[in-house]
Amino acid sequence: MLTVSNYHYIRPHFEAKYPSIFGITPAVFENQLKVLRNEGDFVHPKDLVADFDSIINSKSNYHFITFDDGLKEQWDYALPILDSLNIPAIFFVNSINFDEEKVTTVHKIHLLRSILAPHFMVEKLSESDSNALSSEEKTKAQTIYRYDDPESAALKYLLNFKMSFKEQEVFIDRLFQAYYDEKSVLESLYMSKENLTHLAKKGNLGSHTHYHYPIGLLPKEAIEFELKHSKHFLENLTQSKVDMVSYPYGTPEASTEEVATLAKNCGYHLGFTTQRGSNVGTENRLLLNRFDCNDLPGGKSYVAS
User: Fold this and answer.
1) Tens digit of each residue's pLDDT (9 = 90 or more) over 98-108
2) How far apart are CA 161 and CA 138, in angstroms?
3) What single-letter DSSP state applies at residue 240?
4) What is the 3-state secondary structure (H, E, C) of 74-126?
5) Taking the complete model, does pTM exceed 0.85, yes or no?
6) Out of 71-85, 159-173, 253-267, least confident range
7) pLDDT tops 60 at residue 303
8) For residues 19 and 113, is the Cβ–Cβ distance under 8 A?
């Protein structure tokens, strides 16, 4: 059995005028790793690819640690803890941050929401009737963004699933440029190319696609670009093989059977969603389940069964 845990932000504190960036502290991260270590062995990315069938069909429990977004704080705070405990992990990154030297739209949203009142952004977006959410969509939003208040969940759903990507990017970029310097944010928020190369040489680097879109909502040609371009860019940059991909958002809409098939055709061996659950051998290996770290032992939302 394989249990996959996923992390994003990791920093000493998360204070903000309007809290919208959530994650864990290094102390909590280290404690959770120690808790998980008592429940099974940690597997290295290379071993998972090489011995996938035996690992996933084993009666023993294996843990696999993953990080999304290629954030600098993961390098600064998580990696030293992992190294000190001799625990392997994989870091999934978006190629846009390094190839086009642009801040990912989703991170622009996080930063803007940390300084702007939620109702301000909702009002701006609601100026168009086409952006109004139905009751069913609001419920769905709360299910997907279970750790957010209803208004914040609705805002995220509207941005990520209701608006077209171009509409979203134009709206967010205009606000972002008014409050932030993109070059400074780029340098402070993401790992460096040297960091990526270091991780790749150890077998700890994977793709998170190019633009961080929910790619299952894209046409086939765009899905192929997201998967192929990021893989080729990272492999050319680091001169190392990239065998794994994690799908941004990872919901059923974002990680479909078509996405899995195209990922396999692009040369990926394993793919990860955000569908909660352990993997016991019945799953498509390009659509593996993955827990948010908070839902596992040592996490703030964990409830023992």
Assistant:
1) 999 999 999 99
2) 12
3) S
4) HHHHHHHHHHHHCCCCEEEECCHHHHCCCCCHHHHHHHHHCCCCHHHHHHHHC
5) yes
6) 159-173
7) no
8) no
